[in-house]
Every structure is written in structure tokens, then in C-alpha cells.
Design a protein that fits this description.
287 residues, alpha/beta, Protocatechuate 4,5-dioxygenase, Chain B, two-stranded parallel ribbon, 9 helices, globular
């Protein structure tokens, strides 16, 4: 859980002069005409908004993409079976699912328009393959709203969050595949997690802390599998180098499979790499 973080007064990391240009170039190269990409991103904890490098990267990424008609988020922080559709009203509440942080992080707001039409499309696309229920009072957790406050700060795009009903890669791939047609309507499907998430094994909580070996090993393994488009290897991630420490629990890796299931094209492009408090920031998009 991200509430294990201990970032009281985090240091800032430097921003290379070409950081935004680098992300923009990679993201633009992964855009197909007439279809919104899908993405998997590391969502960070609430202090992400204070990291000048990561906010520069996320801002550049969003600006390189077509403007979404709506955003559908699958976050590591909402596991619920059966698959559950969250709040669809305007300015849905936020879930401050963390503790021990400075008070200002609990004052964050993100009054995005509701997405009831998108909720009905999700229900229709999953009909017959996945039971769906609704939790109209369940707002967006920090896996959804924290990156959105950086990427789409105007809060003027409809947002819908749905739960992960399972952590099984094959079933999540099927859910992603069922949702793929939404991309033709301009919907941005966003899997929100963290490529490595071994919080219990971290000792240095600076933004620019050197990554542990287990984090770099798993990150490199995942990078090679993504470059090959090897979904089978990724689904068997528990056998990967460093996996036991990179994902002592697997909910932060699982949203990746919804994104890959929604893919219908070449291997992913990866606009964001590097590490944040030693955890892999690797974030990618699929065409």
C-alpha cells in the first residue's frame, strides 16, 4: 500500500533540459490515427505532485496524445469483485486512501465531469463475459486522481473508475480486450499501478534514491518483455528476477494487463522510465 511511504519533507530531483521533449517524441511516435492509445502508468503517491521531474514527464505525455473524450481508470487501489463501476456524477468524491501525510494532500480536489454514458458502454461491452455491479458512492482513489491532477489539471474530461475484480492476468487481459472498442470512441483506458512496488523493502525515501537491485532487475526484465511484445512472459511475472521483492503483493502490476488487453498493434512505446524513491516509474502506451 502507498500509505507505507515515509516522505515527510522530500527532496526535489533535477529536471534535465530535454525531459519534456524526450517524452513528447516517444509518446507522439506511439499514436495511431483515429484511435486513442491505452496506457499503463506509475501513479506515485500524493507527493508525486511535488516532484518536478515526474510532473514534467506526465504533463508532456498527456499533451502529446489526442484529447480524450473520456478517461476510464483501472487502479491498483480498487480491488472488488464482481467488477464494479464507480461514481458517475459530476465532481465525484475522492478517496484519500493513505495516512500520515501532510494535511494539504487531504485537501486535493478533482471535480471532473461524470461519465454515465461511458459506464453504460462498459456494462454493455462486458455483458455476457463479466458480471458488473455499481457503487454510486465510490469516488476516485489516489491511483486515479493523483496522476490526473498533473496530466489533465483542468478536470474538464469525464472520468470513470472501475474496479479490478481479480488479479489473474488472463482474466484482466480479457477485460481489456472487451473494452478495446472504447478506444475508437476516443476513450483513454488508463491502467494505474507501479512497475515495481516493494515498499516494505525500501530504506531510502528520497525522490532520487538509488534503486535496489530487485527493482532494477525486475524493471529491466519487464522492459525486455514489453519490447518483444511477450504477453505470456509478463503474465508469468512471478518467475521474473526480483519479483518476490518488486511485488510482494501484485495489485500494482495487475492493471498492466488491462492495458495490454486493450492493445491492438505493435509493441508498446515507453515515454517514461527511471526510478522514484527506488521504484520503477516505467510507464507505456499501446496502439
Amino acid at each position: 500500500m502507498d500509505d507505507e511511504l515515509k516522505l515527510a519533507v522530500p527532496e526535489q530531483e533535477p529536471v534535465p533540459p530535454d525531459a519534456a521533449t524526450h517524452v513528447t517524441r516517444l509518446a507522439a511516435a506511439g499514436v495511431s490515427p483515429d484511435r486513442m492509445p491505452a496506457m499503463y502508468l506509475g501513479h506515485g503517491a500524493p507527493p508525486l505532485v511535488d516532484d518536478p521531474l515526474w510532473t514534467t514527464e506526465l504533463t508532456a505525455w498527456s499533451r502529446a496524445l489526442p484529447r480524450p473524450t473520456a478517461i476510464l481508470v483501472v487502479s491498483a487501489h480498487w480491488e472488488s469483485a464482481p467488477l464494479t463501476i464507480g461514481a458517475t456524477q459530476d465532481a465525484a468524491p475522492l478517496v484519500y486512501d493513505f495516512y500520515g501525510f501532510p494535511e494539504r494532500y487531504y485537501q486535493a480536489t478533482y471535480p471532473a465531469p461524470g461519465a454515465p454514458d461511458l459506464a453504460e458502454k462498459v456494462r454493455s461491452l462486458l455483458s455476457g463475459t463479466e458480471p458488473v455491479v455499481q457503487a454510486p458512492d465510490r469516488g476516485m482513489d489516489h491511483g486515479a486522481y493523483v496522476p490526473l491532477t498533473v496530466m489533465y489539471p483542468g478536470a474538464d474530461i469525464p472520468v470513470l473508475q472501475i474496479s479490478m475484480p481479480t488479479l489473474d492476468p488472463d482474466r484482466l487481459l480479457q477485460i481489456g480486450a472487451a473494452l478495446r472498442p472504447l478506444r475508437d470512441e476516443g476513450v483513454l483506458i488508463m491502467g494505474s499501478g507501479f512497475l515495481t512496488h516493494g515498499l516494505p523493502f525500501l530504506r531510502d525515501f528520497r525522490f532520487d534514491a538509488p534503486p535496489p537491485a530487485w527493482s532494477t532487475e525486475f524493471d529491466q526484465w519487464a522492459a525486455e518483455a514489453l519490447d518483444r511484445g511477450d504477453v505470456d512472459a509478463l503474465a508469468d511475472f512471478r518467475q521474473a528476477p526480483g519479483a518476490r521483492y518488486a511485488h510482494p503483493t501484485t495489485e500494482h502490476f495487475a492493471p498492466l494487463f488491462v492495458t495490454l488487453g486493450a492493445a491492438d498493434g505493435p509493441a508498446p512505446v515507453t515515454p517514461i522510465t527511471g526510478y522514484w524513491i527506488g521504484l520503477a516509474k516505467r510507464s507505456f502506451q499501446v496502439a
